């Protein structure tokens, strides 16, 4: 079995130089797609679906190769679990159309736990040029939300886990599924169709804690609420600190002072799903209303004169830089990285 890393490299090099004839060579494309299905455990219900998925995959593969052949780009793309899906499917997964409530990343209309708006003068002034919370052993393993719009749960729980680790040196992995199942009515959650960051906090605050992943594991779909069956870890959430200054310098100081920070970004670009390495910069990542994806910022730095943020995503380890993305920093609030920032107060 050819290794995935080699496969990607091989494709990027080979298919880019192929003639149209060779590119249409059915034997070859069948092999490439079958390799993909094998590597990513893809199986389809019917021959028809196989055909449709294969066509989508080849189209995406072509775009990936084209991007990677452009040396002006600051990042690379690769095949991953999304390569057999259309952008429309990915868009709907992240940003489902639910009629009356247009934004699933609802940040305002929810009754929230006590919040505290911080003034930037409470953050460290002198911060290093680069910083990474992974070096302090407070960041847990990369997880995979799978094909369920539960990023809001992942981001908030990971940030709370980090805050607890910083404060008490205790490591927990809380149950994402409990929030998915139990924090629906009254918490602004639509399960796998998205939900409110505040709602996750409110749920934990009202319950006084949450159960652990090892007892109540993730199923990537909504199910009956079973919270009472499992032991609960007590958590006393004091509130949330919000800063939405659109000032990346304040965000940098806040990250250094407070710990990992939950942010909502605009990820509604096919390039985001195809990202594999380097510093992500998407020309079209500038729309004013697209708050579509919650992630956690864990660090920042510069590479070859380009500043970046490091974000921890929940698309598994095969996406991006082992599950992380470096994204352009000090480029006009790229993808709205400093437009909605939130950190838990314990
Ligand atoms: C198609 O690809 C296969 C496998 O690489 C190769 O053996 C065959 O000669 C190719 N056929 C054409 C017409 O290029
Ligand atoms: C595919 O399944 C195998 C066996 O269950 C597992 O080891 C592997 O990590 C899976 N691959 C992906 C991409 O999920
Ligand atoms: C290569 O990338 C640069 C930077 O994104 C872009 O401006 C340019 O249009 C691209 N070139 C091609 C041939 O796509
Ligand atoms: C924190 O916990 C880890 C093990 O989980 C231990 O190795 C380390 O010494 C602890 N650090 C402090 C400061 O207590
Ligand atoms: C975003 O960028 C694209 C491409 O550069 C441009 O066409 C579009 O008008 C921009 N949108 C906004 C809201 O600035």
Automatic annotation (TrEMBL):
Residues 33-90 form the Cathepsin propeptide inhibitor domain. Keywords: Disulfide bond, Signal. InterPro entries: Papain-like_cys_pep_sf, Peptidase_C1A, Peptidase_C1A_C, Peptidase_C1A_papain-like, Prot_inhib_I29. Residues 1-19 form the signal peptide. Residues 127-345 form the Peptidase C1A papain C-terminal domain. It comes from the Eukaryota. Belongs to the peptidase C1 family. This is Uncharacterized protein. It comes from Polypedilum vanderplanki (Sleeping chironomid midge).
């Amino acid at each position: 079995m050819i290794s995935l890393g080699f496969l990607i490299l091989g494709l990027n090099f080979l298919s880019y130089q192929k003639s149209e004839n060779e590119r249409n060579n059915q034997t070859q494309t069948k092999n490439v797609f079958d390799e993909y299905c094998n590597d990513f455990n893809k199986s389809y219900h019917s021959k028809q679906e196989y055909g449709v998925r294969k066509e989508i995959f080849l189209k995406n593969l072509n775009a990936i190769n084209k991007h990677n052949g452009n040396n002006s780009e600051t990042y690379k793309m690769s095949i991953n679990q999304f390569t057999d899906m259309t952008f429309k499917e990915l868009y709907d997964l992240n940003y489902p159309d639910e009629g009356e409530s247009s934004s699933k990343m609802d940040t305002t209309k929810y009754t929230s736990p006590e919040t505290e708006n911080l003034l930037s003068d409470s953050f460290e002034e002198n911060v290093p040029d680069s910083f990474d919370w992974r070096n302090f052993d407070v960041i847990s393993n990369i997880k995979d939300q799978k094909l369920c719009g539960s990023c809001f749960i992942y981001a908030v729980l990971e940030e709370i886990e980090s805050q607890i680790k910083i404060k008490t040196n205790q490591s927990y992995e809380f149950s994402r599924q409990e929030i998915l199942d139990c924090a629906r009515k009254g918490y602004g959650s639509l399960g796998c169709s998205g939900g409110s960051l505040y709602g996750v906090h409110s749920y934990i605050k009202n319950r006084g804690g949450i159960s652990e992943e090892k007892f109540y594991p993730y199923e990537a779909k909504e199910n009956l609420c079973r919270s009472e069956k499992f032991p609960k870890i007590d958590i006393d959430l004091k509130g949330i600190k919000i800063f939405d200054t659109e000032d990346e310098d304040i965000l940098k100081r806040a990250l250094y002072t407070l710990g990992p920070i939950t942010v909502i970004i605009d990820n509604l670009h096919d390039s985001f799903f195809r990202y594999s390495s380097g510093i992500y910069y998407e020309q079209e990542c500038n729309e004013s209303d697209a708050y579509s994806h919650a992630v956690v910022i864990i660090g920042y730095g510069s590479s070859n004169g380009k500043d970046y943020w490091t974000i921890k995503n929940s698309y598994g380890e095969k996406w991006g830089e082992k599950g992380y993305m470096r994204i352009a920093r000090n480029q006009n609030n790229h993808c709205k990285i400093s437009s909605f920032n939130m950190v838990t107060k314990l």
